[in-house]
Design a protein that fits this description.
The protein is α/β, with parallel strands linked by helices. The chain contains 6 helices and 37 strands. It folds into 2 domains: 3-98, Udp-n-acetylmuramoylalanyl-d-glutamate--2,6- Diaminopimelate Ligase, Chain: A, domain 1; 107-320, UDP N-Acetylglucosamine Acyltransferase, domain 1, CATH 2.160.10.
Length: 347
């Protein structure tokens, strides 16, 4: 479509209009990363640190931040542009103009095994070799791809998508507009074993796993069912691939957990918390609203709201930066210490 059409579709009051050169209205065929863009591509520049890419890219049009210098640079190169306070968000909306995920038309494949006590909503797709057991309730417009297994006493909300080979265990409640990606396991037994004189006694996991509306769970992630009570994931929280969430965790709304993060049992996470890749949260720890846990951090104690913690064991980020700077100087400091020791012995 023409760039002017894209601008019109994206304009939500936060964007400028076309480049001042009104003759610039290129045909846009695709969206592309700035370093891979070619003629006919729309790309974006997220901030001034990427300004050198404006002169290198072959894109026909750019989404830019509200930065006069970047806009002037693009104008000088005869490039069409649109600017926004959140260029990455605007570019994400532009992608949706060119690409929509494939979704099958409603049908139930003849190889699916569906218990007669299951309740199925209207306009649903159930793919080959899906297994749906007793007392399962599936809402309107749900899409279940091949080889999904849904255990008894489970609820799936409207328009939720279950991708191929994920498993939904008993006593799981998944809200509307959720996405469970391939290989994810929701509601499996938590790691509940009690030491006894004769060994480990298995504590039955009789609780519930609840995903509120809009939750997305990445490939091969696991969310455990507790012995009693609930494991709960709040509305609109996004969970990356290979994330482990232990039994009884309570995660708030609009959180984001990156790949290989691990939460032990009973962790409580507030709203809008960010947990970066490979971070680990110890049993029963509490993270306040808008806290940030950086990559590979190991959190053993509570973290207050809006705090940023890094390192292992995790400490406030400003302390971590100071400690990291000292760590790099340890060889030099060690040599200085040895030299001072020799001087003391000589005197």
């Amino acid at each position: 479509m023409k760039f002017s059409e894209i601008v019109k579709k994206l304009d939500s009051g936060e964007c400028n209009s076309l480049n001042v050169n009104q003759e610039l209205d290129p045909e846009i065929r695709e969206v592309a990363p700035v370093e891979q863009a070619s003629a006919g591509s729309l790309s974006y520049i997220e901030g001034s640190k990427f300004k050198t890419m404006i002169g290198k890219t072959q894109a026909s049009a750019l989404v830019l931040p509200n930065d006069d210098s970047l806009q002037a640079q693009a104008t000088a190169l005869d490039m069409a542009w649109i600017c926004a306070s959140e260029p990455r968000l605007l570019f994400a909306k532009a992608i949706a103009l060119f690409y929509q995920p494939w979704q099958p038309t409603p049908e139930i494949h003849p190889t699916a095994v569906i218990h007669p006590q299951a309740e199925l909503g209207s306009n649903i797709y159930i793919g080959p070799h899906v297994v749906i057991q007793a007392r399962v309730k599936i809402g309107e417009g749900v899409c279940i791809y091949p080889n999904v297994v849904i255990y008894p006493e489970t609820q799936i909300g409207a328009r939720t998508i279950l991708h191929a080979n994920c498993t939904i265990h008993e006593r799981t409640q998944i809200g509307a507009d959720c996405v469970i990606h391939s290989g994810a396991v929701i509601g499996a037994e938590g790691f509940g074993f009690v030491p006894s004189p004769t060994g480990w006694f298995k504590m039955e996991q009789s609780g519930y796993t609840i995903l509120e509306d809009g939750v997305e769970v990445g490939c091969n992630s696991t969310i455990d069912r507790p012995a009693v009570g609930q494991t709960r994931i709040g509305r609109n929280t996004k969970i990356d691939n290979l994330v482990q969430i232990g039994h009884g965790c309570q995660i708030g709304e609009n959180c984001a957990l990156a790949a290989q993060a691990g939460l032990a049992g009973g962790v409580k996470v507030g709203n809008q918390v960010l947990i970066a890749g490979q971070a680990g949260i110890a049993n029963q720890a509490k993270l306040g609203d808008k806290a940030i846990i950086t990559a590979k951090a190991g959190v053993h104690n509570d973290v207050e709201s809006c705090a940023v913690f890094s390192g292992y064991p995790a400490v406030p980020h400003n302390i971590y930066l100071k400690a990291s700077a000292i760590y790099q100087r340890l060889p030099e400091m060690y040599q200085t210490l040895r030299r001072l020791g020799r001087q003391l012995r000589e005197h």
